[in-house]
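Quarterly update from the structural biology core.
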Amino acid sequence: MGRDRYVDFLRAWAILLVVLGHWLITGLVRRPDGAIEAPELLATVPWTQWLTLGFQIMPLFFLAGGFAAGGSWTRAREAGGTAAGWVGQRAVRLLLLAGVYSGLVLVAVGVSSAVGVDPFTLALVGWAMAMQFWFLPVYLLLSALTPALHAPHRRWGLLVPAGWGCLALLVGILDLAAGLPYVGTLNYVLVWGVVYQFGFCWRDGLVGGGRTLPVVLAMGGGVGFAALVGVGPFPVSLILVTGQDPSNTDPPSAAMLAWALAQVGLCLLVAPVVRRLLERDRVWRAVRGTGAVSMTLYLWHMLPVLVVAAAFYLTGLAPQPDFGSPVWWAWRVPWLVVLGGVLVGVVRVLRPLERRLASLDVGVRPDAGPHQAWPMWAGLGLSVWALAYFAGHGFAYGGRFPVWAALGLGVGTAMVALPRRAPRRPAGEPAEGPQASGALEEAV
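Predicted structure, tokenized:
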């Protein structure tokens, strides 16, 4: 009864838009020799880059994630839980699901490589199955930093995201002007961290209580984005386009930060209207149903594309209008319907597995001492590295099996999930703090 239904709605809405957006921009072409290609729609049909303004909704994930994490960490801290224990409990659910998904995909990659599948095709499929992974290492890093980020939030409130935003702008300037290697990578944490910290502020009533600040964020962010794109050096696309430099996503740019702030403001402005809709039982059941399978949808939504490619494109049954033509766009409707039907079947098959993973009693206990926590921190770092590798290279870079990344994710997940006993407490003192929520949607 204490859940904020609007936060759950933001997560569910973001998931659906991610799935729909990836499906919409994925186009397949069968060559005369029977091979399948996937032309890059945003590069081939440049006007489609404007569509990314509606489909780039990752700020919603980080805003809702900060809201949920702020409340969860506050409860754990007040009950005597440790940072390592809380981070371990939050990370393990995501890592188990990502690990199972990655393991199954890697098995398929290994078998395909062994039977002689064309390396180019294998690399393309491996990239498609990992294209959504960039979110996971960034989110895990912010989760791991939550106890450290929440302390200054409790003292300075809105000054913290404001300061981080200024720092992100400085990093962006250094990246563009000086071209220092890897400096821009910091903005993966800084830019998305600004939105994540706004989630803290939202939960504690520092934003959203009135209309002034949301209006300022929405209008200021929108005007800033327009200026940075129209006058400044940034492209309009909020999704990576091959050959575009600078990019708004790799790393996140000042334009992405402005658009994220505009989304935060807009979300706060429409919150009262959407909350009234969520009071209807039918609407709320749909939101909760989507949230219950959120990670399955997020991880597995590109598998239907491979199924449809094998069933209709390899066999030559799919129509082949000119790529990006009006007829091609008309065929997007049955394309989306068929993919949706396949994904429903995938979710139904995998739902029992997701429930079993959610019920496992694994991970660092919330009250585990620091001397017991080092394997968790090491495992988390190893897992973040492996997930970042897959996000940047796919599951079969160059058509080869990624041995070290596969080992890193497997060993790292095992280290995070390894059960550890809590330190002994004096008689009469509670044996353990409250568990972090086991609901998978609470983790994201």
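Residues 116 and 122 are 10 Å apart (CA to CA).
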